[in-house]
Design brief:
Radius of gyration: 23 Å
Strand order of the largest sheet: 1-3-2-12-11-8-9
Helix content: 10-25%
Oligomer: single chain
Largest sheet: 7 strands, antiparallel
CATH topology of the largest domain: Tumour Suppressor Smad4
Shape: elongated
Number of helices: 7
């Protein structure tokens, strides 16, 4: 049902791909070892801290990790991830699977899972489900670098979001957007007599969120985020603008002044 595979050389990570295997085969790897499991209804893989009681040991020296933190079941042509521990499991895309939550199906290819431990530690469990096509990445050493997708903003829109999101551009820990009135006051100092008010800033930023949401960017509408909204909509917008390099730290210098 299972077999060990070596952890030498490039096999120390599944991110580089896996050996040729039947579609649906599951590969799992942690610092403590790895195995493969063929797809068959009823197959189950346990992972957690208690090495004698699980297939894959994760965080064996960290008591914040549950002895059986989770399991993977094969059913209906898919592998399903269950959280049976006491703390959430972080999936790709910052998705959290909470204890007792509905199981999550794994897609084909690579999926890193993170189990939060003590003192800020995170324990990695790498998973790879073999698909119907070759999943081994092709080297692209000489390929042209793909540029980021930078969002188009008007001059006033860009000025507004740079000021609103200055804490993100200053690399502060756990940044949050400025309040509307704070951003309006800063903009009024930069451009006296230009009619900067809290309502104007709010209107400009809402327009940007609406445009990006219509193109498929998630987390920018009240319906998606739910109540209470708080700063979530603007935080998600600014995160997208920073990650896409639409706004960059150099934009702060272009303001011509440092803003407190």
């Amino acid at each position: 049902m299972t077999r060990e595979f070596p952890l030498s050389g490039v096999d120390r990570t599944l991110a580089a791909g896996v050996p040729e295997s039947a579609p649906g085969t599951l590969f799992a790897l942690s610092l403590c070892g790895g195995l493969t499991m063929a797809p068959k209804d009823g197959r189950r893989l346990y992972f957690g801290r208690n090495r004698p009681d699980v297939h894959i040991c994760v965080g064996e020296d960290d008591r914040r990790v549950s002895r059986r933190h989770g399991q993977l079941d094969y059913a209906g042509t898919r592998w399903w991830l269950h959280n049976t521990g006491r703390l959430p499991i972080r999936l790709p895309g910052s998705v959290w699977l909470h204890p007792g939550g509905e199981p999550v199906p794994l897609g084909d290819g690579y999926a890193p899972l993170f189990l939060r431990g003590s003192s800020g530690r995170e324990h990695l469990l790498e998973l790879f489900v073999v698909g119907n096509l070759d999943q081994r990445p092709r080297s692209k050493h000489a390929d042209l670098t793909q540029p980021p997708s930078i969002w188009r903003l008007s001059e006033k829109e860009k000025l507004a979001v740079v000021v609103l999101g200055q804490r993100y551009l200053y690399h502060e820990a756990n940044p949050q957007p400025l309040a509307w009135r704070q951003a309006a006051a800063a903009l009024a100092d930069l451009q006296p007599g230009q009619g900067w008010t809290a309502k104007r800033v709010e209107h400009l930023v809402a327009g940007i969120r609406g445009r990006l949401a219509r193109t498929g960017v998630t987390g920018l509408t009240r319906e998606e985020v739910g109540e209470p909204v708080g700063n979530s909509l603007n935080h998600n917008l600014l995160t997208e603008l920073v990650l896409s390099t639409t706004i960059v730290p150099g934009d702060l210098e272009a303001l011509g002044a440092l803003i407190d």
